[in-house]
Write a structure and sequence with these properties.
Elements (H helix, E strand, L loop, with lengths): L1 E12 L2 H32 L5 H14 L11 H22 L22 E4 L5 E3 L2 E4 L3 E5 L4 H8 L3 E11 L2 E12 L11 E6 L5 E5 L4 E4 L4 H4 L1 H13 L5 H35 L2 E5 L3 H5 L2 H10 L1 H14 L3 E5 L25 E3 L6 E3 H23 L13 E3 L22
Parallel strand pairs: 8-11, 11-12
Antiparallel strand pairs: 1-5, 1-7, 2-6, 3-4, 4-5, 6-7, 8-9, 9-10, 12-15, 13-14
Helix pairs in contact: 1-3, 2-3, 6-7, 7-10
The protein binds zinc ion.
Length: 432
Amino acid sequence: MATVKTAYRFALAPSPAQEHALRSHAGAARLAWNWGLARCKERYAAERKWYSAADLHKLWNTAKKNDPDLAWWAENSKCAYQEAFRNLERALADFVKSKNGQRKGKKLGFPRRKKKGKARDSFRFGAGVMRCAGDTVTLPRLGTLRTCEDTGALASRVAGGTARVLSATVSRTAQRWFVSFTVEEDRHVPESHARPGTAIGVDLGVKTLLTGIDDQGKLITVQGPKPLRASLRRLRRASRACSRKQRGSNRRRKAAARLGRVHARVASVRADALHKATSGLAARYETVVVEDLNVTGMISNKKLARAVSDQGFGSVRRMLAYKTTRHGGTLLVADRWYPSSKTCSNCGSVKAKLTLKDRTFACDACGHVEDRDVNAARNLLSLAASGAERLNARGAAVRPGPAGRAAVKREPGTRQRRGKTGTAAPQGTAAA
Ligand SMILES: [Zn+2]
């Protein structure tokens, strides 16, 4: 049995009174964030340090008793404030890490105020009653809310004692409210994969969602749904309609809501396709090797931005990590500097330059010509062999050897066995 962290997300169907309460809680979270940020800034100006989430909560409890302006905020669950202070604490810590170069990706700025209507409506419960049954969920202060889908799968796991709800995050996307439960689950993880020895190298592409070459030389391609591009016309129309309306008008608000719904629809189509593709890979192959794409770096490249975010590279990685674990397999992630696209899969020589426009790989050394993505997948597959050897030899995650960087690393969270302590698996949606 292994313990994995997953998320269950349900769309809510609140009554008008509940909708009001949801908005109020989102407002509470925003107020707490802004209030806490102001206190931290004051203290930083005077003492060069800020408050922890616990300190802020204490200060808040005093302030709300003395300041009549804050009195009505007692209508909301105290969790909404507490969790907002925790978010702020994390954002400040991430800012410091980023500043000191201890955090991957784009430099983070100092946390900013959240504006009503601009910031995403969202709040979290970290304690209290968090239950689901049939097509309802029960949350602190909010009581029992209707859901659009059946919650039975999670409810029966909780009732059977194999799942524990750690927190519940409520958020609004377009005009719809969602609750996402973070759940710790005991799952039976097979000691070994049903198809031992199988491996596949997977290149995550721009044109094609996945290009894989397996150990039998079989080519597997999954065309991305490209839902954004396909419904681009609809999106463009909705966005034009929105900008034509006068700012602040009722019509503008309605058009913005329609635009939001188009976006939300596109995102769900994409998530669905990714779930199908990754479930298939995890079931069929014991070892899956992917490259470690610097997604934040790629997103900052404007040309690539739409194609990349459309395909959701980051989410593919997260899904593969927890799905391979569930099947008793392993996800290996190539070192981010490993030139999988520029290396010739035939002779191993590395090309100096290969632009994203070059869809075909042509080797200058041996004359080998192959589709760019297929060539990259072959190189990743070859890492599976070396990675597996190293894993067997050391019985632990691959670390950079004396020769320098290791070409592969094991994704944190994959393969947790009874008796082993490990970090929790990356979160993902359980609907698969
Ligand atoms: Zn070659």
